[in-house]
Each structure stands twice: as structure tokens, then as C-alpha cells.
Write a structure and sequence with these properties.
With 362 residues, the protein is α/β, with parallel strands linked by helices. The chain has 15 helices and six strands. It has a six-stranded parallel beta sheet, sandwiched between helices. Helix 11 links the parallel strand 5 and strand 6. Helix 1 runs antiparallel to helix 2, helix 2 crosses helix 14 and helix 5 crosses helix 10. The longest helix is centred in the middle third of the chain and has 20 residues. The relative contact order is 0.17.
Length: 362
């Protein structure tokens, strides 16, 4: 089932049929929620999580036993314009930190018992072999979107296929939930540019601090994005062209992962701003993919709110996070597991001998 993104550069698979959601299971799950010893709807989004998971997994008793996390790492040519508070060398250094188990997502993965994989799709420097790191480096970072299209057609295909391959590895390993994360200095600049193109909003409305820019830095970042949007304006009507011209290898890999998750009926949890922009790209092409997504949290990055609103979704939590790496998505896995526990193990009114209020005349 696994695909090597460099041996197969075709992306015809992106339009393969999506695995259907089991509507019958969702109906039965909804009926069960209404029969449990609680007022209907009183567990709020915990009920919704269980019902949706039942339909996605096609199971009477939904559960999350083997979550998988893949972090895609790559550098961005636009970083040369000073749009990040950190140097590009940090991307490669963080890949080493992931491998050594010292990053936030490493700690979270251990805590929730998740399989963690890092895929290098385009660091500036070639990296040594490392435990837990898959080398699928497409190039030494993308081209500078201020002066060129970020990716060639072949590079874009390789990035999409890298995301596809990651999901297939997780699927083959028995994963029942997929989280995609990102690492790449200047990737909030690329993600903001894509969001501006797809939402037809000015860069000043969506640009944020990213790695910690001050107000002047954010204004400069917005100026860089605006110039890139003007340069590529004739190619930005199609979501994939917007992603190819303005995006990063890791954002394209995330987009490929989201598509493949929907095709193999793998529930997916979207992290923050970068992951959500990749989700916006694929939802713009095919809105049915969105029904198979959970949105974990609302990032403190200002553009994230606009992206979530455009997809008409409500995230599970709002903790003010903006780290990336898939960290926000990993944080909500325990909540999702609790939703399953409540759904599967609470007593019904009939089992508990508790009146359900149906004969209450008050």
C-alpha cells in the first residue's frame, strides 16, 4: 500500500473516491447518546465527538487506541526576507530535537501513546540518518515566493505524495487516528499568503507574530506577503496553484495527508494555523473532506480564526497555543478518548432504572 513519493509523481489519486461515513452508525450513536443517564446534549461537544467517530470508524463503540503523529519539516525561500524571529537553521535543529525526544510533540506523543514520525521534506541542509525521521527531502527548501513559484509541478507532486505515504504507513501500522504537524521557519508567512489568496483578504488582516515578531516585524511580513500575492495573482484562483506558488513542502505534504485520510477512512485531527490552511486548500477543492476532520484548537495566530470561520468549524478547545508541531491536536486526544469512554460505558436510563423524564407531567 505504501508509495514512494519520488518513484510515483502522479497525483491522479487525489481525486479518488472518499471512503463513505457510516451514517447508520452515526444514527445509532446519536440514539445511544439520547438514552444515556443525562439530559440530552448535556455533554456538549463530547457527545458530538463520539457520534462523529462512530461514523468515521464504522464502529458501534468508537475508540482511539493507536493514534499516529507525523510532523513534516521543511524550509522556505521567503525566510531570506527576515519574516521570522528565528534563523532557518532552527528547522534542522528541531528535527534533531524531535528525534532525540526533547520537543513538545515528542513529550505529548509519549504521553498519549502515539506513534511519532518526522518526515524531512525539505530542510535547507541535508540531515544525517536519525531515529524516527524519514528522509524524503525534495530540495533545499522552497524557492522564494517573492520572485518565483515556491514549487515546481514535480516538487509539488512529490510533497503531496509524501503526505499520502505517511498516512499509508500509519494505516498499515494499525493507526485509528492521524495527526499531522509542521516544522518550518517562515511557514506562517507561506500559510498566511495562501489563506489571503483563498479568502480574498489583505495580508494585514491575517499576518501575525509567528515565531515572535514585534509589531514592525508583522507589518514587514504583511508587505512581503502582499508583494508575493501581486506577483502570482494570475495563478491564485485554483487552490492547488495557490499552494504550489505560495506554500511550503510541509504544507503541501499536510494537504496530501488530509486527502488520503479521507480516502482510507482515517479520522484526522487538524492542529493550528499551518495545518488548517492545508485543510482549507483541500476543503476548497472538495468540501466533503471537511466532514472527516476534527479541528483541535484555535491558535493565537490571528489568521487562524478567519480560516476556521471560512470552513464553518468550531475547534474543540482554545488554549492560546501557537506552537505547531501537531501539539494542539495531540492535546485534545485525551478529551476525545474520554468522549468515547462516556459513550461506550455510561448506563442507559433503562439499564440504571432511572426515569428518563418521558412521563414527567410537570
Amino acid at each position: 500500500m505504501n508509495v514512494d513519493p519520488f518513484l510515483d509523481t502522479s497525483i491522479e489519486w487525489i481525486d479518488n473516491p472518499l471512503e463513505p461515513i457510516d451514517e447508520d452508525r452515526m444514527t445509532k450513536a446519536r440514539a445511544r447518546q439520547n438514552s444515556l443517564t443525562k439530559p440530552p446534549g448535556s455533554l456538549g461537544m463530547l457527545e458530538t465527538i463520539a457520534i462523529r467517530l462512530a461514523g468515521m470508524q464504522g464502529l458501534e463503540a468508537p475508540d482511539i487506541k493507536k493514534p499516529a503523529i507525523t510532523v513534516f519539516a521543511a524550509d522556505h525561500g521567503v525566510a531570506r526576507h527576515g519574516v521570522s524571529a528565528f534563523p532557518q537553521s532552527v528547522t534542522a535543529e528541531m528535527v534533531r530535537n524531535f528525534s532525540a525526544g526533547g520537543a513538545a510533540i515528542s513529550v505529548l506523543a509519549r504521553s498519549i501513546g502515539a506513534r511519532l514520525e518526522v518526515v524531512n521534506v525539505g530542510t535547507m541542509v541535508a540531515l544525517e540518518a536519525m531515529n524516527g525521521v524519514v528522509d524524503q527531502r525534495i530540495a533545499a527548501g522552497t524557492a522564494d515566493m517573492m520572485t518565483n513559484e515556491s514549487m515546481s509541478e514535480a516538487q509539488f507532486a512529490a510533497a503531496l505524495n509524501s503526505g499520502r505515504a505517511a498516512v499509508e504507513r500509519a494505516h498499515d501500522a494499525g493507526a485509528d487516528l492521524f495527526i499531522g504537524g509542521d516544522m518550518g521557519i517562515a511557514n506562517t508567512t507561506s500559510a498566511t499568503a495562501i489563506a489571503c489568496a483563498l479568502l480574498d483578504l489583505p495580508a494585514g488582516d491575517l499576518s501575525g507574530p509567528g515565531t515572535g515578531l514585534n509589531a514592525d516585524g508583522v507589518r514587514h511580513k504583511a508587505t512581503v506577503i502582499t508583494r508575493a500575492l501581486v506577483r502570482h495573482r494570475e495563478l491564485l484562483k485554483d487552490p492547488f496553484d495557490a499552494l504550489r506558488c505560495l506554500g511550503g513542502f510541509e504544507i503541501a505534504a499536510l494537504a496530501g495527508a488530509w486527502i488520503r485520510c479521507a480516502q482510507v477512512r482515517m479520522p484526522m485531527v487538524i492542529d493550528g494555523f499551518i495545518s488548517s490552511v492545508a485543510a482549507l486548500v483541500v476543503n476548497t477543492r472538495n468540501p466533503d473532506i471537511g466532514a472527516r476532520m476534527f479541528h483541535s484548537h484555535r491558535s493565537a495566530e490571528p489568521g487562524h480564526r478567519k480560516v476556521l470561520e471560512a470552513m464553518c468549524v468550531t475547534p474543540l478547545v482554545d488554549f492560546g497555543m501557537r506552537l505547531g508541531e501537531g501539539s494542539g491536536a495531540a492535546v485534545v486526544v485525551p478529551l476525545m478518548r474520554l468522549a468515547c469512554e462516556l459513550h461506550n460505558h455510561m448506563a442507559t436510563f433503562s439499564q440504571a432504572g432511572v426515569s428518563d423524564g418521558s412521563n414527567d407531567s410537570t
